[in-house]
Specification:
This protein is α/β, with parallel strands linked by helices. 29% of the residues lie in helices and 17% in strands. The longest helix has 11 residues, at 69-79. A hairpin with a 5-residue loop joins strand 6 and strand 7. 26% of the residues are buried. It is elongated and about 55 Å long. The chain folds into two domains: 2-79, 3-Layer(aba) Sandwich (Rossmann fold), CATH 3.40.50; 97-144, no CATH class. It has helices at residues 10-18, 31-40, 69-79, 111-116, 135-143, and strands at 2-5, 22-25, 44-47, 61-63, 97-100, 120-123, 129-131. It binds zinc ion (ZN).
Length: 157
Amino acid sequence: MKFIADAMLGRLARWLRLLGFDTLYYRDISDGDLLKHAVREERILLTRDTHFLNIKNLGKLLMLHSDCPLEQVREVLAAFDIKAFCPARCPGCNGALSPADKKEVRDLVPEHIFFAHSSFQSCRSCGKVFWEGTHLKRFRERIGPLIGEGGREAGKK
Ligand SMILES: [Zn+2]
């Protein structure tokens, strides 16, 4: 399931990436380009802008009702009956994350972080490094209860 969020939904887009959903987001994008991405890449358009409802041949669209990003996440999860998350994606650029060797991140993270953590991940697209203590994990723990017991990450106990 892939998404594209309209320009008003930046926070939602970052949060969906943290939950592992491939979500495109551009701060400055025309409606035309937004639709082009959505159709060409078979992405579900997430929007709060009701004028999209009048466009024909739009493909899939989810109209969000809430102003609150957390509520919006809940709306998305409910609309598609999502019960499990995928491995997190980079909240900044939507790139896939992969485990990084500790030696490789030596110069990329603050010293106290380097010594306090043993597992790191880095974004294959922008190179940003993530570790267990980042908002990445905390956020997923916070969102988990919203979608019930089935919301645990696949493959983890
Ligand atoms: Zn990235």
